[in-house]
C-alpha cells in the first residue's frame, strides 16, 4: 500500500497544481488556476485545492468552491456558473500492468475522498469531467452518484461525412443568404445575443453578465479560446460561439443566436466553419456540451457526435440530513 499524505494546497503550490492538471488524463481548462481564480473572484466564492502527495510528488487532487451559510455551515461544490465540471484529477501512472494502475487510481481517489469528508461540509457536490471513468472508490466510501452527458465530436475526419442532411441543408442556406463568418472578440455582442436567446424562451440569462465577461477576458488574454460571429451582408450579428480548448480538445462553451434569424442557417454554418478551422490547427475533437438539455441535444445530434457520460458525486453530513428531516 502506498503512503499518501493529503493537505490543502497553499498559494505557493499553485504551480504544482497546474503541473498536475497538465499531466493528469482528467485535467481540463476548468481545473486550471486561471479558471479557478477568475471564477472565485467574480462569484466571490473561495476555491479549495486538496492535494494527494507521495513523498514530495503531487499525484492527485480535487478542486471545488466553498459557499458559507451563516458563517458556520459550509457547502462545497463544482457546479457554479459557466463551469460544466472539474473535480478530481489523478496523475498519469508509470505502472505497466492494468492491476497496478487500478490500485494507483483507487488508493489516491480513496485517500482524497476520506480527507474531504473530514472537512465538515454539510453538503458536497462535485461534477467530474468525462475522463474520470472509474468513480468506484467514491461509491465505496458512501458518495451518491448522478450521471450527466456530453457530446464528443471527432474532428479527425471529413466534416461532410459527419454532418447530417439537415446540417448540410442549413449550410447551403446560409451560403445562399451570404452569411459571413469571422473571429471577433466582442463581449457586448455576445451578451446581447444571449439576452435575445433566453428572452425567446421567457427566461433570463442563467449567469451574471460580469462573470461571463470576466471569464471571456481571462480566456482571451491567455490564448485559451476564441469568439466567432456569423453576420448578414449588412453586418448584423445573428449567431455567436465562444470556443475553449486545452489538451483534451475544444469545448463549445457559450453560444447564442438571434431567434428571429434562425431560418438563415447561421448557427450550423458558423459551427461548420469553426470545426474546419479547429481541424486546421490539429485539434482532433470538440465537446459540444449540449447533451443534457432536450432541444440542445436534438440540434447537436445532427452532427452525429458520440454520446459520453460523466459523473457527479455528492456527500451529505449527518447534520445536513438531520436538518433536512426537521424541515419536512
From TrEMBL:
Where does the BioF2-like acetyltransferase domain start and stop, copy by copy? 165-294
Q: Which InterPro entries match?
A: Acyl_CoA_acyltransferase, BioF2-like_GNAT_dom, PG_Glycine_Bridge_Synth
The name this protein carries in UniProt is BioF2-like acetyltransferase domain-containing protein
Q: Which Pfam families match?
A: Acetyltransf_6
Q: Which domain of life is it from?
A: Archaea
Amino acid at each position: 500500500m502506498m503512503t499518501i499524505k493529503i493537505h490543502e494546497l497553499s498559494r505557493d503550490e499553485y504551480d504544482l497544481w497546474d503541473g498536475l492538471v497538465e499531466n493528469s488524463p482528467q485535467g481540463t481548462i476548468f481545473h486550471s488556476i486561471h479558471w479557478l481564480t477568475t471564477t472565485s473572484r467574480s462569484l466571490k466564492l473561495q476555491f479549495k485545492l486538496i492535494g494527494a502527495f507521495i513523498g514530495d510528488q503531487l499525484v492527485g487532487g480535487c478542486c471545488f468552491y466553498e459557499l458559507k451559510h451563516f458563517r458556520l455551515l459550509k457547502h462545497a461544490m463544482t457546479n457554479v456558473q459557466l463551469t460544466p465540471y472539474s473535480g478530481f484529477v489523478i496523475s498519469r501512472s508509470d505502472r505497466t500492468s492494468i492491476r497496478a494502475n487500478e490500485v494507483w487510481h483507487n488508493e489516491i481517489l480513496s485517500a482524497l475522498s476520506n480527507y474531504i469528508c473530514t472537512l465538515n461540509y454539510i453538503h458536497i457536490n462535485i461534477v467530474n469531467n468525462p475522463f474520470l471513468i472509474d468513480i468506484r472508490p467514491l461509491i465505496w466510501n458512501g458518495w451518491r452518484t448522478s450521471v450527466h452527458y456530453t457530446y464528443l465530436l471527432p474532428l479527425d475526419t471529413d466534416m461532410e461525412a459527419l454532418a447530417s442532411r439537415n446540417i448540410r441543408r442549413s449550410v447551403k442556406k446560409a451560403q445562399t443568404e451570404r452569411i459571413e463568418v469571422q473571429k471577433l472578440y466582442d463581449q457586448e455582442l455576445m451578451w446581447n445575443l444571449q439576452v435575445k436567446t433566453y428572452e425567446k424562451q421567457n427566461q433570463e440569462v442563467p449567469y451574471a453578465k460580469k462573470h461571463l465577461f470576466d471569464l471571456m477576458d481571462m480566456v482571451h488574454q491567455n490564448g485559451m479560446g476564441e469568439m466567432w460571429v456569423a453576420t448578414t451582408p449588412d453586418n448584423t450579428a445573428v449567431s455567436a460561439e465562444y470556443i475553449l480548448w486545452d489538451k483534451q480538445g475544444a469545448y463549445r462553451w457559450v453560444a447564442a443566436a438571434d431567434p428571429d434569424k434562425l431560418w438563415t442557417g447561421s448557427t450550423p454554418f458558423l459551427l461548420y466553419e469553426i470545426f474546419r478551422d479547429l481541424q486546421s490547427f490539429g485539434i482532433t475533437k470538440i465537446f459540444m456540451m449540449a447533451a443534457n438539455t432536450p432541444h440542445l441535444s436534438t440540434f447537436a445530434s445532427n452532427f452525429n457526435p458520440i454520446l459520453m457520460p460523466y459523473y457527479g458525486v455528492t456527500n451529505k453530513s449527518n447534520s445536513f440530513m438531520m436538518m433536512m428531516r426537521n424541515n419536512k
